[in-house]
Amino acid sequence: MNNISGFCEDKPDRAAETEDLYNRAACGYHSLDKDGVFVRINDTELEWLGYSREELIGKMRWEDVISPASRKVFRDNFQGFMERGHVHDLEYEVLRKDGSRFIGLLSATAIYDTDGNYLISRSSVIDISDRKLAEEEQLRLNRALRLIISSNGIMVRACGEHALLADLCRSILDIGGYLMAWVGYAIHDEHKTVMPVAEAGYEVGYLADAGISWGDNERGRGPTGTAIRTGATQVNQDCLHNPRMAPWRDAALKRGYQASISLPLVEGSRTFGALTIYAKEPHAFNPQEVKLLEELAGNLAYGIAGLRTSSARVAAEELLRDSRKGYQLVLEHAADPVFVVNQEGRFIYANREAVGLLGYDAGQLLAMGIPDIAQEAEFEKAWNLFEQLKARGDLRREIALQCRDGSAVPVELNAVSLPDGTFYASCRDITERKRHEDELKAREQRYRAVIETSSEGFWMVDMEGRLREVNDAYVRLSGYSREELLGMRIPDLEANEHAEETATHIGKIKSDGRDRFETVHRRKDGSTWPVEIVVNYWHDVGGFMFVFVTDISERKRTASDLRVAATAFESQEGILITDADSRILRVNTAFSEITGYAAAEVIGQNPSILNSGFQ
User: Fold this and answer.
1) Reduced to 3 states, what is the DSSP secondary structure of residue 235?
2) How confident is the model at residue 140 (pLDDT cuts 50, 70, 90)?
3) Contact 181, 174 (CB under 8 A)
4) Which helix (H) or strand (E) holds 550?
5) Contact partners, residue 428, CB within 8 Å, separation at least 6
6) pLDDT tens column, 551-567
7) What is the rounded CA–CA span in Å between residue 278 and residue 301?
8) Alpha-carbon distance 409 to 395, whole Å?
9) Which of 110, 151, 362, 382 could in theory staple to 85 by disulfide, Cβ–Cβ 3.0 to 4.6 A?
């Protein structure tokens, strides 16, 4: 008895500190019995859930505070956990009392009696909601970027306008991960109809019954009609609550459309249609994603105009075989500025787009030639290009033309020789494209700067596991130089997997598109350190993996310290905890074994009961 009394007098601060550490930990702690019922929980997790301790302990199960999908995860793992004794990094969607949710990452160990029977779990829960949200946003941005890259290839390969639209809609689903996409053109009829011309995804008659207009009427005030009428992007983040979706709400929700974006297709100053994309979750389009999708729509409109101009050029060549008057009817309506030039480099025809681009009237242009619209410093280059055209029969270059007001406009020149010995030249204004290219280049530089200055390591790895790019952070973490790392493969750095296992893992990442896991890397000096890996697969150009490497040494140490603190209370030494009035609040198992008092006998009593002589 004296030993216990002395212990209680010497170590109350330690016990209180341990309990305080348990309750105020940065993560949640709880214990479940064999039926999954709460038997213990710390203050942190109680605050997250919004329940009182009295509502949970002995009354509610873990399954009662997780979503239906997460219940399946629990049922699939709980029996195995009780048998194995441990489980790590299970993700659960946790339901608060007020109905809100957060994502919890759970790890647990099992406590057994002396006969090996399961007693309770010791479970830790980390709220990873912010991290999951950031990962999902980054994934959406990566998909949008890959979609833009893919669209460039689609436009290069397109053999016609309808094929371009159909292929792009399919790419929006396959690469962008969206639910449905369609393109509609504005028809200038009495009802200002929007006519669907291409679609892909889960549509099931939606467009046939939609009756969308681009006029200022009830069926024209939705996202698609408004985008065409105003020429501005329309983002619908919530089909259920957006009043402008009223005419289509039931049909949209029935098909799983929760959010949408409508992007105008613009040629010059004219909006001729819209690209509309649907997502399966509300609030799916963040500002960065909207900008990237606007760029996609701009590229699509550019590609459509190019195909139409190409068709006009073919028609012009056919008409030139018959008469001068015939081709003028076609070329006057071409989307791009068009010139016809004779063997001396003089203009014998310029359409109205050419007049509008350069600022001269038609009569002035027909008295001019190639040198008159070339920049002064580019005269020689302009004549050299003309000589190349005469020698080769075709020419495609980016050049700058001199306008009447002295300004320069960048154009993409496409020129061919015609059967009558003259030359056809279309000059597409690429001012906007140049601006987009500059923005893309600047964005790429920003991304590279972010990666290079990040405290996290970064790799770009090919599908053979060879490192193709690394950042400074990983150089510092690993102790290798950049040159050494770029000659290495993943197994040279990976301490947990053999080469065969790494090859299998790469195949799984290619199949799933991404992965997140913990492993151990090996430094140049032979030491190892724990890391968390987040990897995304990019299928273009033979396939690459973008890998972010986070040093989790400190996190591992902290988690270990917290586990030690949580188990300290269940040590072999007798421990009791009292309140400010010296009433006993809790005792551990060792206390009962040493003193002979059951917990129920002493809780609420003064520690002086230990000197009463009853035991």
Assistant:
1) strand
2) low
3) no
4) strand 544-551
5) 305, 306, 309, 336, 337, 411, 412, 414
6) 988 888 877 766 665 66
7) 19
8) 19
9) 110
Tokens linked to 518: 């913990």
d(CA 124, CA 561): 13
Write down the pTM of the prediction.
0.42
Which among 547, 456, 457, 551 has a CA at the least distance from the CA of 509? Answer: 547
Give me the amino acid identity at 476: R
Length of the chain: 615
Two structure tokens written together for 459: 């790799």
Instruction: Please give the angle made by the CA atoms of 549, 552 and 554, to the nearest 5 degrees.
Output: 150
Report the alpha-carbon distance of residue 441 to residue 420 in Å, rounded: 43
* 454, 471 Cβ separation under 8 angstroms: yes
d(CA 75, CA 36) in angstroms, rounded, equals: 10
pLDDT at 125: 93
Return the H-helix or E-strand segment holding 458.
Answer: strand 457-462
pLDDT in tens, 465-496: 999 889 898 999 999 999 999 989 999 999 98
Q: How far is CA 39 from CA 19, 102, 435, in A?
A: 16, 22, 63
- Beta partners for residue 185, in sequence order: 195, 273
Contact (CB, 8 A) for 402 and 365: no
- The string of pLDDT tens digits covering residues 364-401 is 888 888 888 887 777 778 888 888 888 888 888 888 89
Residue-wise over 425-445: b if at least 16 C-beta within 10 A, else e? bbbbbbeebeebeeeeeeeee
Query: CA Rg, the chain, in Å?
Result: 35
pLDDT top residue among 493 and 306: 493
Residues 6 or more apart whose CB falls under 8 angstroms from that of 220 comprise 192, 212, 213, 214, 226, 229
Check residues 54 and 310 and name the one with the higher pLDDT.
54
161 with 151: CB under 8 angstroms?
no
Report pLDDT for 2: 42
Q: For the segment 109-125, what is each residue's pLDDT rounded down to a tens digit? A: 999 998 899 999 999 99
Q: What is d(CA 358, CA 369) in angstroms, rounded to the nearest whole number? A: 13
**67: its two tokens:** 């979503």
DSSP string for residues in 153-166 = HHHHH--SHHHHHH
Instruction: In whole angstroms, give the CA distance from residue 270 to residue 356.
Output: 15
CA-wise closest residue to 335 among 133, 592, 176, 161 = 161
Q: Provide the Cα torsion 567, 572, 573, 576; round to 10°.
A: 60
- The fraction of the chain above a pLDDT of 90, given in percent, is 36
Instruction: For residue 304, report the phi and psi dihedrals to the nearest 5 degrees.
Output: -60, -45
- In contact, 419 and 431? CB cutoff 8 Å: no
Q: Please say whether the beta carbons of 239 and 284 come within 8 A.
A: no
Closest CA to 528 of 460, 481, 477, 486: 477
For the residues 46-75, what does the mean pLDDT come to? 94
Q: Can you tell me the distance from the alpha carbon of 395 to that of 87, in angstroms, rounded to the nearest whole number?
A: 66
Phi/psi of residue 136, each to 5°?
-65, -40
Question: Are the beta carbons of 180 and 325 closer than 8 angstroms?
Answer: no
Is residue 274 classed as helix, strand or coil in its secondary structure?
strand
User: Please, which residues have CB within 8 angstroms of residue 138's CB and are 6 or more apart in sequence?
Assistant: none
Mean pLDDT value across the chain: 84
607 confidence band (pLDDT: 50, 70, 90):
confident
